[in-house]
């Protein structure tokens, strides 16, 4: 992964996360929960991204699990 | 924040046009050329009909639940818990659209125009751009779209002239000679792209006149149908279906074929300078829909508060998804239509039934019956419907009744194009009639009577 991207992404993320943790007391509970979920998901997915993409979560494979079958079915139909 | 968004009929039509058209220009046409061969330009009729059906249901929802967006309506219809699950599924679908577009555009730019720039940088620039718009509202995106979409549309139409010296009509012949199965499949594949019309459900609160909203969306859909038909006609006429079906980015190569004179070279830079802002608006619309959806879970009044974490999460997932262009293309062509049909068909059926049961606004059109304008409106609706039906009949007649002669093919091809264009003009007339009716009714309320 590009180092410039990594530096920029992590710096901005940490700054924004600290700012959120600092101001979260003034937010309604529901809003806090949604924001926590979004930040949590970003951290989780970013951790996955640091390994080979197919090692921890083969997202591309999961999304395309049906495509070859549909293509095959379409080819047979034609 | 959310309730300040109001967009007019023209902005709605052009936004719909932008959202549906720009997404299919990256790589989608090559799948159509692979399936329907030289008749791929007949592939827009069924998806146009499907998108009009979804637009109709969305307008019905506006009539039954005025001032509410789709996510709020889902909570009303399905309740807190099951509604939450349905909304999460819709959010996942919107997230998929955003990731597909961002990754597709990044891959496209990396492979064609910016080969030295790391793909993560192209991707983060696009994410930062949509996050900038995420601080604003749909109104801003609609206004920016008003600058770029007409130019983009006109340039797309001008390609027929610009590529005139490369064009050969023989590459389209014999017209309508591929099997009915191929034509049918080529008409189902674009449903995945046309399903993006569902995004406008997130902005139902921005519509004040349901019938005008529907007409505007219908006009936008027909702009897309006609433009895509023309672009496919140009693509197949310049390259032929064999080359078009084997290229990853057929439209890029098509634009590169423009050689008007020796000094007018690299026209694709100009074309893509216009295409990129128009495409960015499409991603912005999807992103705003995503923010509105997230907002429905945690206090929707100020959705920009979710802008940063949502944008950063989309950046990470966009990098994670679709490592190769064929993966992305395969998903777009074969899985997305299935996802759209499985997700949207049950939802729009339930939405339609519930909306009919709870209809609050009975007024169909904002003008009195019997007036000249009303008659013109009815006439436009009927002409549009008959023209679209004529398109279907032309294809069927070309397939089953006419011989596969050169003359028969030309007659069906020209009839199809003319009828599609008439449907487009009729949808414009319908939209304008409704808008004038709305303005006259507003004036009548102030003073005077409605002119007969």
UniProtKB/TrEMBL annotation, chain A:
This is Uncharacterized protein. The chain crosses the membrane at residues 6-22, 34-52. The lineage of its organism: Bacteria, Bacillati, Bacillota, Bacilli, Bacillales. Keywords: Membrane, Transmembrane, Transmembrane helix. It comes from the Bacteria.
From TrEMBL, chain B:
One of its GO terms (cellular component) is membrane. The keyword Transport applies. It comes from the Bacteria. Keywords: Germination, Membrane, Transmembrane, Transmembrane helix, Transport. It is a multi-pass membrane protein. One of its GO terms (biological process) is spore germination. The chain crosses the membrane at residues 12-35, 41-61, 73-98, 118-134, 146-163, 183-208, 220-244, 274-294, 306-325, 331-353, 376-401, 407-429. It is found in: Membrane. Belongs to the amino acid-polyamine-organocation (APC) superfamily. Spore germination protein (SGP) (TC 2.A.3.9) family. This is Spore germination protein (Amino acid permease). It comes from Brevibacillus centrosporus.
């Amino acid at each position: 992964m590009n180092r410039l991207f990594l530096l920029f992404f992590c710096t901005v993320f940490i700054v924004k996360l600290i700012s959120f943790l600092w101001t979260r007391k003034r937010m309604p509970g529901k809003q806090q929960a949604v924001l926590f979920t979004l930040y949590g998901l970003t951290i989780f997915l970013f951790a996955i991204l640091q390994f080979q993409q197919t090692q921890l979560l083969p997202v591309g494979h999961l999304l395309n699990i049906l495509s070859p079958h549909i293509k095959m079915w379409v080819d047979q139909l034609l | 924040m959310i309730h300040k968004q109001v967009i007019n009929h023209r902005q709605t039509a052009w936004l719909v046009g932008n959202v549906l058209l720009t997404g299919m220009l990256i790589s989608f046409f090559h799948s159509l050329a692979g399936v329907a061969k030289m008749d791929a330009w007949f592939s827009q009729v069924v998806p146009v009909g499907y998108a009009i059906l979804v637009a109709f249901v969305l307008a019905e929802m506006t009539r039954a639940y005025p001032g509410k967006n789709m996510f709020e309506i889902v909570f009303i219809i399905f309740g807190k818990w099951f509604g939450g699950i349905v909304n999460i599924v819709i959010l996942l679908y919107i997230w998929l659209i955003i990731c597909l577009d961002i990754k597709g555009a990044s891959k496209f730019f990396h492979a064609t125009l910016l080969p030295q720039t790391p793909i993560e940088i192209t991707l983060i620039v696009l994410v930062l751009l949509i996050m900038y718009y995420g601080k604003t509202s749909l109104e801003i995106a609609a206004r920016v779209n008003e600058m770029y979409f007409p130019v983009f549309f006109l340039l797309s139409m001008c390609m027929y002239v610009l590529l005139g010296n490369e064009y050969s009509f023989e590459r389209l012949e014999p017209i309508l000679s591929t099997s009915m199965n191929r034509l049918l499949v080529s008409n189902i594949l674009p449903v995945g792209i046309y399903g993006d019309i569902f995004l406008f459900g997130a902005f139902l609160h921005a519509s004040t006149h349901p019938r005008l909203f529907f007409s505007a969306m219908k006009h936008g859909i027909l702009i897309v149908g006609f433009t895509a038909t023309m672009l496919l006609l140009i693509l197949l006429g310049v390259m032929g279906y064999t080359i078009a079906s084997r290229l990853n980015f057929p439209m890029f190569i098509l634009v590169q074929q423009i050689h008007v004179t020796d000094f007018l070279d690299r026209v694709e830079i100009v074309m893509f300078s216009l295409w990129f802002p128009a495409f960015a608006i499409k991603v912005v619309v999807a992103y705003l829909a995503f923010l509105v959806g997230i907002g429905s879970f945690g206090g929707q009044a100020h959705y920009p508060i979710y802008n940063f974490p949502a944008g950063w999460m989309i950046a990470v997932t966009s990098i994670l998804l679709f490592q190769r262009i064929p993966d992305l293309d395969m998903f777009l062509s074969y899985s997305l239509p299935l996802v759209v049909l499985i997700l949207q068909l049950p939802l729009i059926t339930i939405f339609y039934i519930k909306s009919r049961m709870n209809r609050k606004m009975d007024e169909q059109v904002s003008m009195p019956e019997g007036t000249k304008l009303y008659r013109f409106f009815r006439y436009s609706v009927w002409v549009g419907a008959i023209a679209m039906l004529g398109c279907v009949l032309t294809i069927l007649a070309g397939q089953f009744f006419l011989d596969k002669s050169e003359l028969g093919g030309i007659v069906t091809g020209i009839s199809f194009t003319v009828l599609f264009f008439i449907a487009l003009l009729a949808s414009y007339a319908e939209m304008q009639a409704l808008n004038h009716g709305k303005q006259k009714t507003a004036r009548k309320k102030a003073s005077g009577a409605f002119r007969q």
